[in-house]
Amino acid sequence: MTLVSKGIHHVTAIASDPQKNLDFYAGVLGLRFVKRTVNFDDPTTYHFYFGDGAGNPGSILTFFPWPASRRGRQGDGQVGVTSFAILPGSVGFWIERFIKHNVDFEHPKTRFDEERVIAFRDPDGLLVELVAHPGADAGATWSTLAIPAEHSIRGLYSVTLWQKSSDLTGKLLIESLGFEPVLEQASTFRYAAKGRGLGSVVDLRCVPGLWPGVLGAGTVHHVAFRASDDAEQLESRNNLVARGFNVSPLMNRDYFRSIYFREPGGVLFEIATDSPGFAIDEPIDKLGQSLKLPEWLEPRRFEIDALLPNIRLPMEIPGPNA
After folding, report:
1. Which of 146, 158, 215, 261 could be disulfide-bonded to 83 (CB atoms 3.0-4.6 Å)?
2. Is-contact 229 274, C-beta < 8 A?
3. Quick check: 204 and 217 in contact, CB under 8 A?
4. Apex 61 CA angle, 63 and 241, nearest 5
5. 8-307 domain in CATH 3.10.180.10?
6. Cβ neighbours of residue 9 under 8 Å, at least 6 residues apart?
7. What is the CA radius of gyration of the chain?
8. Distances in Å between the alpha carbon of 211 and those of 77, 194, 282, 318?
9. What percent of the chain shows pLDDT beyond 70?
10. Whole-angstrom Cα distance, residue 24 to residue 18?
């Protein structure tokens, strides 16, 4: 049976300096700092989660900020671009904000006859977009002292995979992940989850001859797709194994449960459950305020806290009582 996908759960990328990463995504972009925890596989490194006000699946961009890590190289076999959704009336606001904060961005362009796109790079060179689209009004809002709710980023819009060919990955998206082919323009093939909500779009861009991507700061580590619950995730895992994919065992990430596999083009895919969510270990109004560790790492809290770099919340983030 094919998974009926609800779209993207989250995207995880690699950064270098944790403070610059926090200042840019929570400060300049105004995303909520949803969770401050550690990389479960390398607990001396932070794992930051940014998203909407409640940390809903489909709004989340996460980072492993490894201080002084080498710069990666975007290329074939990677998520080349991560895109966020904004309302059409917010384009001017974001151009002015990017100019004010010296963000490296491109003049807005029209794509697929219905999207206004502002492409930009974060401090590590990660390729990101703001996509102005009427459907963004379905997303949750989160305001800061500098970004009113009506101009806030509403959640993820899409990811763009850079690959030699779209054939095998497109087949996987349709037959195992429940996406539908919806558009084609030049060398880009668009697939969408049936619900058409935020985070429902995957673009496959064919780039034959492009150099292979190299993992490092400024590149995406993996993209995760949503499973409503454990049963749907297990069904999806059985489907993938039956089709010959090497799927990881189930991994508990505290805020969701995960399985991983490499899709035919080389991108690391994850399927993550919507539950239990980010409020499992702190209330919604306190998200991101303190370091959270999984139960098995709590005995090492003093050691881990001493090894992690000191960080401060950007001034533009309202406090919990704002």
Report:
1. 158
2. yes
3. no
4. 90
5. yes
6. 57, 58, 60, 199, 224, 225, 226, 256, 270, 271, 272, 274
7. 19
8. 9, 33, 43, 43
9. 95
10. 10
Each residue's pLDDT tens digit, 64-75: 999 989 999 999
CB contact burial 74-104 (16+ within 10 A = b; e otherwise): bebbbbbbbbbbbbeebbebbbebbeeeebe
| CA–CA dist 237, 252 (Å, integer) | 15
Do 2 and 239 meet the contact criterion of CB atoms below 8 Å apart? yes
Q: Are 102 and 24 in contact (CB under 8 A)?
A: no
Task: Name the residue among 132, 18, 6 with its Cα closest to residue 69.
Answer: 18
Can you give the residue ranges of every domain in the chain?
8-307
Region of residue 146 (phi > 0: left; psi between -120 and 50: alpha; otherwise: beta): alpha
Q: Does the pLDDT value for residue 321 go beyond 70?
A: no
Segment 98-143, tens digit of pLDDT: 999 999 999 999 998 889 999 999 999 999 999 998 877 766 678 8
Better pLDDT: 143 or 80: 80
Sequence-separated (6 or more) residues with CB below 8 Å from residue 59: 51, 52, 139, 140, 154, 155, 156, 198, 199
Alpha helices in the chain (DSSP H): 18-22, 91-100, 167-175, 230-242, 301-307
- The DSSP line for 31-84 is -EEEEEEEETTEEEEEEEEEESTT--TTSEEEEEE-TTPPB-B--BTEEEEEEE
Whether the model clears a pTM of 0.85, i.e. scores above it, the answer is: yes
**pLDDT of 193 higher than 80:** yes
Q: Which amino acid is at 125?
A: G
What six digits make up the tokens of 302? 């003093």
94-to-90, 131, 147, 180 alpha-carbon distances in Å? 6, 11, 10, 31
